[in-house]
Amino acid sequence: MDRIVSCGFDLGHYRELIDAARAGGYRFAFFDGTPQPGELLLRHDVDLSLEAALAMAELEAELEAPATYFLMTRSEFYNLDSPSGEAAIERLRRLGHRVGLHAVYPDAARDARFDPVLAWHNPDPDYLTAPVEGFANVMQPGFFDPEHYRSDSNQRWRYGCPHEGLVRGDFEWLQLLVHPEIWVYPGETMRETMLAMLAAERELRLEQLEADRIDLS
């Protein structure tokens, strides 16, 4: 009997997506050059949570599924210059992943923390696919077209969950955009998931306050 796949947004189903890609014969690849037939480019735009990114990165390392994590230098939610931000970048690289820039237009300044690959944060159509000097833009022609792209934005697949297509090898190649916070924190809707993330953030902040010798008695 075939096992029922839930298609839920959780790490259990993310593992199933990776397994589906392997069953379909896909190879995990980076944004080093024009995608080749049979390649799966795992892309993670880290909009909100380094902790969620690291949880997903650990699972991918276990599954030998390297990905590219796009981190922000202008995030309202995390700070790459903090000790935890520096540690996150180091851990991602130790796990075998790449680190790209998740840039806020028009600021696309590259430094030593980032590989020469960029994904715009909340882009507008007029610059979404334009080349960027010093970077490969993951949405420029060659890396992107609708037939070779799937995204989970706002906890919704635009063309349905891709796991069945991966198993069948339907995609010549695929860029798969997955936002870690959607999968790491529980919730049936985007609102529920974000509230779960905020609850986890509260506990993390309490730990950070204690580490900073703040008396909470």
Description:
It is a single chain. The chain contains 7 helices and 8 strands. It has helices at residues 11-23, 50-62, 83-94, 125-128, 163-168, 180-184, 190-211, and strands at residues 27-29, 39-45, 68-71, 98-103, 117-120, 136-137, 149-151, 174-177. Helix 5 (163-168) links the parallel strand 7 (149-151) and strand 8. It is globular, with a radius of gyration of 18 Å. The termini are far apart. The relative contact order is 0.17.
Overall radius of gyration: 18 Å
- Termini gap: 56 Å
Helical segment count: 7
Percent of residues in helices: 25-40%
Principal-axis shape equals: globular
The averaged pLDDT comes out at: 94
- Beta-strand segment tally: 8
Following the backbone from N to C, one meets helices and strands in this order, namely: HEEHEHEEHEEHEHH
- What share of residues are in beta strands? 15-25%
Biggest beta sheet summary: 8 strands, parallel
Key features of this structure:
217 residues, alpha/beta, globular, eight-stranded parallel sheet, single chain
Task: Explain the layout of strands and helices.
Blueprint (H helix, E strand, L loop, with lengths): L10 H13 L3 E3 L9 E7 L4 H13 L5 E4 L11 H12 L3 E6 L13 E4 L4 H4 L7 E2 L11 E3 L11 H6 L5 E4 L2 H5 L5 H22 L6
Helix pairs in contact: 2-3
